[in-house]
Specification:
Elements (H helix, E strand, L loop, with lengths): L4 H14 L2 H13 L2 E6 L2 E8 L8 E7 L6 H7 L2 H8 L2 E5 L2 E2 L12 E2 L16 H15 L2 E11 L1 H12 L6 E5 L16 E6 L7 H14 L6 E3 L5 E6 L8 E6 L14 H9 L12
Parallel strand pairs: 3-4, 3-7, 7-8, 8-9, 9-12
Antiparallel strand pairs: 1-2, 2-4, 5-6, 10-11, 11-12
Helix pairs in contact: 1-2
Length: 294
């Protein structure tokens, strides 16, 4: 792996000095688990970060975490607690990096990373970025190198990453078992998803970028795409309201978590741990058959 030779030499020296093969294996795992991986999509180099828990059983699920504006893949899955959740839940987690609007310019808040979700407002060249094929390539790359269950691949996205999760849920529904999208909007495609898509939608009552009316529009759009009937309330923590529609088309479900006192954020504690809630939702769903990969 690029850039790991000095680390591996250090590991070998430490292992020899301490006389412990087990320590050497452990240190190799620490060096590799959170490394950056590179892919070339239509001539453009793209990156993603990967965390594989130690002693992972074969056939593990995969969760792809899509960051919001001004963030990146590694920051998103660490800041939102996905690394720890993966260790507890025994699954692989990946954090792809979005494109910058002006790739040749200095990174800045105005030259932030984003996703070609179809939602207007992304700067520069982001609307031309081939992000759907990038995510497909990330899934295939991870599947080639790790024993994952292709029937259990999930996407969680926040803000612009949530916009992208909504696009992926429509466009590559045959590859994803479920999605979780928070503080997001959706550009409807010209055709419905190929199958019913289980969707967890969440948002806060104090979010200036995704106000409650916009959240309800997204919920209604997904209910229509999934041919859902009426919704019903279910038990929820204090300052949280949860509405569920389902079972819908192909056994799918649309679940809406409305959080009081929350602005434009992905909470990991109060009033709810959204990472835990997303994983609890994901693990209820799997594809009927594994899709073919490249």
């Amino acid at each position: 792996m690029k850039g790991t030779t000095p680390v591996l030499l250090m590991i070998a020296v430490v292992a020899i000095v301490l006389g412990s093969a087990r320590l050497a294996v452990a240190l190799v795992r620490l060096a590799d688990d959170n490394d950056s991986h590179r892919l070339v999509i239509n001539g453009v180099e793209r990156t993603y970060y990967l965390h594989v828990p130690a002693d992972l059983p074969p056939g593990a699920p995969l969760v792809i975490v899509l960051h919001g504006d001004a963030s990146d893949g590694k920051s998103a899955f660490r800041d939102f607690g996905w690394e720890d959740q993966a260790d507890l839940g025994r699954f692989v987690v990946a954090g792809p990096d979005g494109s910058r609007g002006y790739p040749d310019a200095t990174p800045s808040r105005r030259n932030r990373r984003g996703w070609n979700s179809g939602v207007p407002g992304e700067p520069g060249s982001i609307p031309m970025s081939d992000d759907v094929n990038f995510i497909v390539a990330v899934i295939d790359d991870i599947a080639r190198k790790n024993d994952i269950d292709r029937r259990r691949v999930y996407v969680a996205g926040f803000s612009s990453g949530g916009h992208m999760a909504n696009r992926l849920g429509q466009e590559i529904a045959e590859r994803l078992a479920a999605i979780s999208t928070s503080a997001s909007r959706m550009a409807l495609l010209s055709h419905p998803p190929s199958r019913g898509m289980p969707v967890l939608i969440s948002g806060g009552d104090r979010d200036p970028r995704t106000p409650t009316d916009g959240q309800l529009t997204l919920v209604d759009d997904w209910r229509k795409l999934n041919a859902c009937d009426t919704a019903h309330a279910t038990a929820a923590p204090t300052n949280v309201q949860i509405e569920v529609s389902g079972p819908c088309r192909d056994g799918s479900e649309v679940r809406y978590i409305f959080m009081r006192g929350v602005a434009h954020a992905w909470p990991t504690k109060d009033p709810i741990d959204l990472t835990q809630a997303s994983w609890d939702f994901f693990k209820r769903f799997s594809l009927p058959a594994a899709p073919e990969g490249n």
